[in-house]
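Q: Hi! Curious about what alpha-mannosidase looks like structurally. Here's the sequence.
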Amino acid sequence: MATKLISPPLSCPWVTSREVIIKGLPRRRREWMVTKRNRVSAVTAMIVEPLSVVSSSAIQIHQWWEQNPNSLLLMTEATGGYSLASYYTSLGLFVISVPGLWSLIKRSVKSKIVRKTFVVNDVKKEPKQVAGEILSFFTRKNFNITDRGETITFEGKMVPSRGQAALLTFCTCISLASVGLVLTITVPDFGNNWFFIILLSPLAGVYYWKKASRKEEIKVKMMVGSKGRLDEIVVQGDDVQVEEMRKELQLNEKGMVYVKDARGLTHFLEHMVFKGSKLYLDRSEKKSDDSDSSRASLSSSSSTKTLVSLLHIVLHEPLCIIFIFFSRKALASMAVKCFSLYLILAAIVIGGVTSEYIEYNTKPRIVPEKINVHLVPHSHDDVGWLKTVDQYYGACVQNVLDSVIASLLDDENRKFIYVEMAFFQRWWRQQSNAKKVKVKKLVDSGQLEFINGGMCMHDEATPHYIDMIDQTTLGHQFIKTEFGQVPRVGWQIDPFGHSAVQAYLLGAEFGFDSLFFARIDYQDRAKRLREKTLEVIWQGSKSLGSSSQIFTGVFPRHYDPPEGFTFEINDVSAPIQDDPLLFDYNVQERVNDFVAAALAQVNVTRTNHIMWLMGTDFRYQYAYSWFRQIDKFIHYVNKDGRLNVLYSTPSIYTDAKYAANESWPLKTDDFFPYADKPNAYWTGYFTSRPAFKKYVRDLSGYYLAARQLEFLRGRDSSGPTTDMLADALAIAQHHDAVSGTQRQHVAADYALRLSMGYLQAEKLVASSLSFLSAAKSSTEKKNPGTKFQQCPLLNISYCPASEARLLSGKSLVVVVYNSLGWKREEVVRVPVSSENVIVKDASGKEVVFQLLPLSEIALRIRNEYVKAYLGRSPRDTAKHVLAFTASVPPLGFSSYVISDTGRTARGLSASYVTSGSMNQNVEVGQGNLKLRYSEEGVKITRHLSTKNQVTAEQSYAYYIGSNGTDKDPQASGAYVFRPDGVLPIKSKEEAQLTIVQGPLFDEVHQELNSWISQITRVYKGKNHAEIEFTIGPIPADDGISKEIITKLTTTMKTNGTFYTDSNGRDFIKRIRDFRTDWDLQVYQPVAGNYYPLNLGIYMQDKTSELSVLVDRAVGGSSLENGQIELMLHRRMQHDDIRGVGEILNETVCLPEGCKGLTIQGKFYVQIDKPGDGAKWRRTFGQEIYSPLLIAFTEQEGDSWINSHKTTFSAFEPSYSLPKNVALLTLQELENGEVLLRLAHLFEVLTCPLYAFPPLIMCYSYVLFVMAKVELKKLFHNKKIREVKETSLSGNQEKAEMEKRRLIWKVEGSAGEEVKRGEAVDAEKLVVELVPMEIRTLLIKFDDQIEMVGDKEQQHRL
Ligand SMILES: [Zn+2]
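A: Let's find out. The predicted structure is below.
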């Protein structure tokens, strides 16, 4: 979404820039427009007017003569012969003109040596840089350096040009004709034979040809002042060369004000006359003649002087001739004819023939021995940002696709890549069949290539890897179904930093051959440009190593073309004008620009292939504008011969890089955090819009469960499906969606789509549970009667289903579904309005429960937010939360019954609610985990052994978001985190605590101030503390941007090291103020150490390990040893000038008015012995992602329980997945096949050296080795007919994919080879998974054809 340039509004008024401020650009644009206008008028005036003067004066003379036959000058007409007066006048004029001819011939072979002193326009330029530019200018023109002393001397050899020789011959011919004419009058006896002297004219050409070859010498001296600044440059040499250098380097002659294009006419004629002449020696010629490599060919002559002489002939001599002709009666009519002929000839010569059709050769393919410039036409279309996805589609993207397709059909050599399937799908369904056939041909021929191919270009910091896989799979399946294609290239050009998971999982495991993007840290880029390491082999996973690596290319600049090569209608770049009748004829100039820009890129890239991205945000709405220019550049630059330019795609480019057989540097870890300037770390968006981030995460887990239930019931395309939720979730992964960097109304649009998707999925879940719980009789199965209700607002304690007063005799049935592959026991909480309740399991046995009071804060939020979401206040008044432990089998459900007994709860199950204050040393907790309280928050102590105990002190604080300073206006905003101080948040000493203690868990409610409160919990039998925070509305009246953090402080000696996850999967080692790839210059010690968290963060020392897991994407860091912090919420006062143009200030509105958004969330803290934390992080992390799904129904007595299936597991009884394996996807596809993804959750680990005794410590590492899953037990009542292993997105067979995989060479050691799980044996049906491996299987069952039938049910259940 963001480009460097300010995009013109065009017809799509919502494209602006994320990097808006590029100083000077608007000014430059203005200048260009002004000078362009000036140039036209100047040229018009100077060329058209003299000619019209000639012709109009001729007419005037003619009229005058007709009216005044006796006039002195023309009286000869009447008397015969000619007037002597006019004759001598003409002769005199003619004599004056002859030296012009002579001077023209003489000067054509000489150069005019000038000495000029220049000053540099751009004062910021270093002398070194200017020297480099001068060097590059002359070497490009094939000059050699002969002296490198104080004065640099360049030497080159000039060769004659045929065009110049011909021109001289022509001019001489005209001139001699005039001489002939005068002589016929002067010496009439010889008659018209005088005209034979024109036969001498070729001699002028011969003279030129013989003498023009000469040496040119240019001397350059740079005067550097006392402060190391470049004062002036003295240049001596040929006038033309010096002038060209001045223009290219934008130098000013000392003491002169340079008026751009003051030489308008000369300039114009120069192009007209010399457009066909060869300015430079061909590279190929040069190559063939090494001994003559010093030979250079310069500009064909000192064209300016030539032009003056030429003008002399063109304008002056005809006047003479006219006078003569009019003086001689017999020749009068011939004179008019001759003059017309002369004008035509002049037009032909000057104008370079007339305008005509040019066929551009756009065919070129790669030429191995040349520098190849791959031009890749593309449009970056954000799936929502400043406008919603549909608004962008309607206003911009359908223009793009319509006009691109038309342009591609026009020329079979043109190519285009398309990326965002959310848009392409919208467009595709609106096309006629005839059009679809044509487009399919374009795709088959490679003219239109889908790359990346997900529904959107997902963000890489804030999405969970499962969402990234799902959204890409959705797009890939569309491409496969409609076009039978498999995308080959990852294209993440805009996301703000790049994750390891993107490289290895969303890249290599999709079978991509390469991955490209633009945004990396500015310091990193500078180093990579210097060292030519923009292109690397990236091994994103240390567990999978080289088995999952990918060729990765970082663009040398942004994802737009080099400056001066953008061609949308309102863009400022000069188009190639190759029609000689147009005034801005500029072919050679533009070719030179192109070559210069390409050579600059060659300097920072390995191999002789470079890629230019021809396009940027929402471009190609008028695709002709781009394609026409690209056609011309390919045609003319190839004609020029210095480069080979071609229409290309990233796939073609990748193949070319591969064919070069080069070794590439190795890259591990990732590209976070991203900064584009010293004070601009894009680490604020890790937390921006925390409520939306949580909504996306909640629905992601729900979607996973809903797909399982859809499969277990049997997909029914006519009924509710998960498709809508899939679509909404996919779009929500866009890099301006879950990232929180869109405008408010766009965020609302994403949320609306998600809620609509949820409603569909909710119906599906209800009907599936109803189906699965129905009794055995087939009539009941076909029309299962149970109506299940669910409570999406359970997070704010709102659940009409459970709150409804349990009428006497009626009870509430709670069905709890577990989408994990292992058995789970977990506390379930539901709001109830009665305190006289008991809970029984399906067998009628009472279970232990706790009844808790709803805190005042919880009630306030419940009332306000229910009203805000639903437009009405909650009907019932929930007073309590009922909590009980549900025990649920893998991939199955259990049922519980809540009923009203009419009497108060028994002592055993009751909670003890007391209150205390901070200073009373309140302590809760069981076993070796204790919580104590202070004004800052909670102190969590874990006793790891009698001698080893660790305490983490939790506290809150907020960063003051910078408003920008005088030196740097960068403010903290939606993207950027730029803190300007930090303030602690403390409660009052006497603040009250509410302490709840019971048989299942203890919890303490604590209010730190009017806008931060929290509940801390410890569960029986669990070793982690759960912290549920409520933050908001963040006060904004003081005009201060606030970014709220919580910290955990210990005395651990962590030595600057901590670990954060990559999209919820691998953990990556981070070292404070350090980057693996370059020497970090620290300007932002806080923001520059922030990393995105999706699963969590941990740190270790020799005696302990502290892990924190999160419930959504947040930013986090460890800014001091032994300390961890999370950013939980942000409310800003400024926009951070990255294009969104709106302040991140989320509010919630009620009829009474709007106030800042309050968020609720949880994080989890556990302290372990070193090395033990992974087990908790991995398995509990999966439980956070996939919470238990709860549905409610009512029954009379025990009617429902007695007549329904109350527990269920899809697995064979007693089978469960190993604890190190998660079931990522179980989904029935539209074609009836079943998509199964299994993931090993653990990373490969080596036993830590300090583990003692090592054998016992490492014994627990059994989770870090290969895992096995038995498919027969997974689908124990179904017959598996076929299992096919595929790529991660299921769009190609794995074996085929591996066969096609490019094997890249890596500089140095490529790392150990990793052994993957064996292929699945059709008989045994066991899936092996090595650490961090994900395997994707397409399964066909024997009962696949029947969707919902008795036979199938028997198989299934
Ligand atoms: Zn974008």
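A: A fun detail: The chain has a mean pLDDT of 83.
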